[in-house]
Amino acid sequence: MKKLILLLFIPLVSFGQSKIENNSKLPSEIIDNIPVYPGCKGSELKKRKCMSERIAKFVERKFNTDIAEDLGLTRRQRISVIFKIDTLGNITGVRARAHHPRLEQEAVRVINLLPKMKPGIKNGKPVIVPYSIPIIFQVKEKKKKKKILKPAYLDW
Known about the structure:
The protein is an alpha+beta fold. It is about 25% helix and about 30% strand. Strands 1, 2, 5, 6 and 9 form a 5-stranded antiparallel sheet that branches. It has a two-stranded antiparallel ribbon with strand order 3-4.
């Protein structure tokens, strides 16, 4: 069975505002509210943890790991994905890096399926927040079917 492993959902070091607001960069420590995945509530720490868990489960459900097997890839596969949550809570600017373009396409497809989120807030205004997420999974080599040799019967 293939197992999809997602590490922590990591906000990038800086946060950007919309082009209307001059697109200046903000250090992550001074954003008022992080973007929120639908249904996540509580403190900022709880929202961050909830968001990581929900995105991990979403990607695990939607990502087709059979693609790697079909491509003949083996061992551990790592796909680095970056994207932004815009001022309306939409996922934008999704980019992925992997050992094979087809894995990149699958990662982009899945991240684009994420639901609309509550945007990040700074000084009471929504801001664009970039995120990074690694998708890691193990592809097990197909075991070759062993031929069962029938015993040769001896003529007595």
